[in-house]
Design brief:
The chain is of the alpha/beta class. Helices cover about 40% and strands about 20% of the residues. It contains 9 helices and 12 strands. It has helices at about 15-20, 35-40, 100-115, 130-135, 160-165, 185-200, 200-210, 215-225, 235-250, and strands at about 5-10, 25-30, 50, 65, 70-75, 80-85, 95, 120-125, 135-140, 155, 170-175, 230. The longest helix has 16 residues, at about 235-250.
């Protein structure tokens, strides 16, 4: 029986899933925005999901992660961006794109840690003009940011702000599932899919530019090459632990989870 896999539709995740579209192997893949992937995993509608990192700490049971693979940045991420129409210290109301709950947690941590702010939060569709009509600032994430590249509002790149504050990468999403739901061979299939996908960044960018012509294929390829990476190493794990520590300190999660991994070896 195929393992039910929840993938993310955003461009930054396509290097992890492109090869699965051509060769799903033991997986049956369905796609959604990050928050949807998390909800389906928590509800047992999928077996494994590429979920927002904050949701690893919010599941109904302990989870495991697939080692070596994630969606992360080591500085400016470009597509997790806070726009403001007044100075940061004057932000009282913040409109949120709820597509990724990790970014919602991250912006609350950064505003509290950097500026001592705890603004009122309102949810909104990812339309910057509408969001700015509702609030002093707006968080926009994922592919929606590409259409606002030339906007003049003050902006804060949350990946850059995190790395400046902590000296660590930030991990936005990774493969997560219940313990024992996949074996070593299936976990390695996901690692190989990542390796194959990043060999085709140019093709991924070109295909995305045909779908979303707000920017050029070269722009999208630079995004995938210079702003996003997909390796979960020691620094990324340290960044995750620091994120969970701060999320707990700011009462965004009720515990700091242990980072348990699937074994890539066969037994």
């Amino acid at each position: 029986m195929a393992v039910r896999l929840g993938g993310i539709v955003f461009l930054n995740a396509r290097p992890l899933t492109l090869a699965l579209d051509g060769d799903p192997g033991p997986f049956q893949v369905r796609y959604g925005v990050p928050s949807q992937c998390a909800a389906e995993l928590h509800a047992g509608q999928t077996d494994l999901g590429l979920i927002p990192s904050i949701e690893y700490a919010r599941g109904p049971r302990p989870y495991c992660l697939v080692p070596q693979v994630c969606v992360a940045s080591r500085g400016p991420v470009l597509t997790v961006r806070l726009y403001a129409r007044r100075p940061w210290a004057q932000i009282r109301r913040l409109a949120l794109d709820l597509s990724s709950r990790t970014s919602v947690a991250l912006v609350q941590i950064l505003l509290a840690e950097m500026h001592g702010l705890r603004p009122e939060l309102v949810s909104a569709a990812p339309d910057l003009d509408h969001m700015m009509s509702l609030a002093d600032a707006a968080l926009v994430i994922g592919d929606s940011v590409f259409r606002y590249a030339q906007r003049s509002e003050a902006e804060l790149d949350l990946g850059q702000a995190w790395s400046a504050m902590t000296g660590l990468p930030f991990v936005y999403a990774f493969w997560v599932g219940r313990p024992g739901v996949i074996d070593g061979s299936q976990a390695r299939h996901l690692v190989r899919a990542r390796d194959l996908g990043r060999q085709r960044l140019g093709a991924i960018a070109a295909a995305f530019a045909a779908e979303r012509p707000e920017q050029s294929a070269d722009y999208y390829q630079r995004y995938l090459t210079d702003h996003i990476h997909h390796d979960m190493g020691a620094a990324e794990l340290a960044g995750l632990r620091e994120f969970y520590r701060l999320a707990r300190a700011h009462h965004l999660i009720d515990h700091v989870p242990e980072l348990a991994s699937y074994d890539l070896a066969d037994h």
